[in-house]
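Notes on consecutive records. When two proteins share a document, each keeps its own sequence and its own token line. Never mix them. Below: protein one.
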Amino acid sequence: MTIRLETRELARCLLIYESELDDSSEPGASPTLHVYEKLRRTLCIFAGAAGFYSIASRALALVRSEDPRLSAARITEDGTLEGLDLVQHQTDFDKGVGGDPAGEAGVALIARLLELLQIFLGEALTANLLRVTWPGTALDECDSEKGRKA
């Protein structure tokens, strides 16, 4: 199952946006972890930790089949993503998005998660949840790059 280009670009845009933020509260955390954690916090309110865990675990399983560099990553029962930092140590590969050690693997993980949300919640509700999570700027920047509104 291939990730839609539009979804992959949305994931990439969110990762770039997060990489450009100056968040001194979590030094060294990757943009992938920032995006993932923001999604987790928002979706746990909506679907609960168990609901988010189910979707996130499926997204990670799908991405692992495409990119084995994520084999060390795992989702805890509360939905937290662990082991993404180990991706950096598995191989020396393109840091890709905003210096993120997860690079393209991080884009694929976030894109897979977004696609599953679109499947289970629908595109409209997913877009609304993203707007709650990133009010204004991030999604507006992504939309202006694509020349459309999400």
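Protein two starts on the next line and is unrelated to protein one.
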Amino acid sequence: MTEKTFEPSQVHQFFRLLQLGNRGAVVELRAFDENDQSQNTFSGYFDNEEAFVRAAKVATEHRDGVYVTINVLNPQLLCRSANRAKAFTQITTSDGDILKRRYLPIRIDALRPVGTPSSDEQHEAVIQRCRRVFQYLRYTDYSEPIVVDSGNGAYLLLPIDFQNDDASKREVQKLLEELGEKFNDEWVKVDASVFNAAQIMRLPGTRNRKGDNLPGFPHRMCRILYIPSTLRTYTETSLLEKEAECFSSLSLLNPYKEKDFRDQVIQIPGGFPDKF
């Protein structure tokens, strides 16, 4: 059976979550080979959804990793490569190109050798930890985040409305460090390095091809797991209710009670859904 490598509905939904109703908002698509990110970068700037999805399909067929910017870009960047992506790109989005911060990315990953896919057990541990962080955020003043399974790890994207300045940078750094202090252990960590405004993340609907695809260490799809109700109007077609309920049934977890990693995996009811 041929493995799925592209899910256009997920790409469509995520592009809409990046534009948030502003059809003129510009998004950079960027793709490269995971083992050598300095060579042959495939990049383009898009304000057209259909053109973005077509380029993402080409990228996922020819590159190991497909990524996207998540914050508000200077619309003039569209002139670099308007609604098309090209190979051997030398100039990509920098922090100075960001007008505002739209999302605060919380990236959770399993501690493992560089350049390898996560094992099934590591991937499960990350999603379980992601649930705990999600529940913790619900007990704070933050909005509900979008949740994405990157294929090896997970992202929680907090909707924010920050200027791109030093104060907002410090605030993002502070939150990531606080979450790391609370939730990091010897198996899973919150990445404190993703505070820069031009941060990119893996694009949902594409396949994560980091390392070789081996039994127990497979390549997996990057997929949206949860969209907050406040943002679903932008996507027009929301995720299946079963998918949303599977992730959001978090009342069983106490975010303030620290547990051993092995206990978490065994004691959290439900585990993974069979299908996202």
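For the record: The longest helix spans residues 120-138.
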